[in-house]
Design a protein that fits this description.
This protein has about 140 residues and is mainly alpha-helical. The chain has one domain: Fertility Inhibition Protein O, Chain: A, Domain 1 (Orthogonal Bundle), CATH 1.10.1710.10. The chain has six helices and two strands; from the N terminus they run αααααββα. It has a two-stranded antiparallel sheet with strand order 1-2. Strand 1 and strand 2 form a beta hairpin. The longest helix is centred in the C-terminal third of the chain and has 29 residues. It is globular.
Length: about 140
């Protein structure tokens, strides 16, 4: 177990149930869907929908649905922003979290290794945000 995972807050130790999409997650999902021929079911389309961890290898399936003439690089950037968002990492790091196919169907549990990576990344982002917030407060004082 990594040092960060050992210090992980209790939100990682007990499942919180579905992690619903924030308005920002819906925006990021819309940015992905904007590049596709049709929206995909694994992405939330409202703040009532849960954030679903992607199945391993789903990026290739998503990329295969790109609109003709659209930028593959822009699609890849949109996917990267989505999966690196704190809410996605929170969904990935929950105990008993499950990966989903492109239509939103459950396919397999998130591995413990991937769960720990999500926890570590989430914790690192939170620490960086806190450091930035404190620096801004000190600069304003």
């Amino acid at each position: 177990m990594t040092e960060n995972a050992a210090k992980a807050p209790t939100l990682w130790k007990k499942a919180r149930g579905p992690i619903v999409a924030s308005p920002r997650m819906v925006e990021l999902a819309e940015a992905i869907n904007a590049h596709l021929l049709a929206p995909i079911g694994v992405l939330p389309n409202s703040t009532e929908r849960p954030v679903l961890p992607f199945a391993i290898g789903i990026s290739a399936e998503i990329e295969a649905r790109i609109k003709p003439g659209d930028s593959m690089d822009d699609l890849k950037i949109a996917i990267r922003k989505y999966v690196r968002h704190r809410t996605y990492l929170l969904a990935m790091g929950q105990p008993n979290s499950t990966r989903h196919d492109i239509d939103g169907n459950p396919v397999e549990p998130v591995s413990e290794e991937n769960r720990q990576t999500a926890i570590t990344t989430y914790t690192r982002i939170q620490a960086a945000n806190e450091k930035r917030r404190k620096a801004q407060e000190q600069a304003a004082a």
